[in-house]
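Running co-folding for pyridoxal-5'-phosphate.
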Amino acid sequence: MTPNHTRTPKHTWTPKHTWDIDDFVQAAEATVEGLAAYVRESQDGEVPVIRRTPPGELAGRLGLARWIREGGMTPETYREWLGAYLAEGTRLHHPAYLAHQTAAPDFPSALADFVHGAINNPMAVYEMGAAAATAEFEVLHWMLAKVGFPEGGGVLTHGGSLANLTAMLAARAAAAPDAWTEGVPGDLAILAPPSAHYSITRAAAILGLGERAVVPLDVDDLGRIDVARLPEGLDRARRAGRRPMALVAAACATGTGLYDALRPIGEFCAEHGLWYHVDGAHGASALLSEEHRHLLDGIDLADSVIWDAHKMLRTASLAAAVLVRREGDLDAAFKQEASYLFYGDQGFDLIGRTVECSKAALGTKVFLNLAWRGERGLGEHVAARYATAHRFWELARERPGFHCPYEPESNIVCFRYGDGDQAEIRETLLEEGSFHLTSAEIGGVRHLRVTVIAPATDDKTLEALLDRVAALT
Ligand SMILES: *Cc1c(COP(=O)(O)O)cnc(C)c1O
């Protein structure tokens, strides 16, 4: 072995196993410079929002096979490689990025990801990262206070889908405490609108209830739970011999961005002894905006809530909170008897509350965004994106040929242009790299769908989108 005080000449690759600190510093500088240029040109909208190079060509351009085979990257070759890698990615900071609900991350949370990548404190057990574990604990308590769960508990998971699964597991434990050891009773059901995120149906399947255990609730034309017809839904489930273990409402729905009426739904659940789950993956962040908090009125009636930070709290993927009104319910999800987490001399282990064994320092990235921008700054971010989306709706409505089926409540807006194939419009925009948007079905009809998530998106962007769509046909 080479003693670590003898330095190997630069740029010749020797398989050494401790960090070469000089290499690290140079490579990190190249990263910062590369990212600074990338974010600047992205948010200035100077480059295409998306490139669609075929994977074979991309693998060649990035030299993937060669690097895998030969190794030997240096700070210099890395700099070049990173440039090519960034150029081929999808630019979430770009004003014309209007697609999936993933944040254009703010840099404090990016720093947290970098730090975690370097130190790797998988803190589900306290002894594997006391600082990271404590940061998560405090972030969770802040979230619990926002939701209105003073006696609550929580955990951060790698994403909303896993968070929904965890919440459904807690609901199952409440309805069938023996399920953990004895297996799942065949009569359990979940009541949810057909517009619920697909991770709910998946959770039902993963939990052993089967997809058919998801009993669809009656909804209005826009997919929102029809409160007046809740009793019918419950009856339907019971008549089919089902025992509903949870009812799921959306805050807000993925497709439309519309909020279910949380308070009356919560009151119905309380009256009928139903576990009330609010999927706030996207829209719970509106709790931070004075102007929009009313959309979540009644969320404190929930038994469980999920809330993604990587959507509207500006962290990178993934960081999602599972929050429960009674702390013990979350621990009961993964065993038969409940327990509670306290600050103790020995710390605390979140591992009893998660599907994951090791997990990333998810709290730290939420914490750093909060520490930098404050709760107020994040609330203003939410309000500003919601306002821009609303502005898009106003602009689209005024134009001939555009049809908007509803007034948006969040930063998600659906529309159609003309009677033609909307998917074709989307395909053209992506192909030319001018705009990145998605589509969604409303009442069985395909619509174009815009999610305003980048702070760089402004009225000019939206006017340009409308101009472009109108010019296409
Ligand atoms: C995005 C979303 C999810 C899934 O979250 P991931 O973090 O992408 O797994 C669940 N529910 C709703 C309402 C969502 O919008």
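Result summary
The chain has a mean pLDDT of 95.
The chain has three domains: 21-86, 112-369, 374-471.
Job closed.
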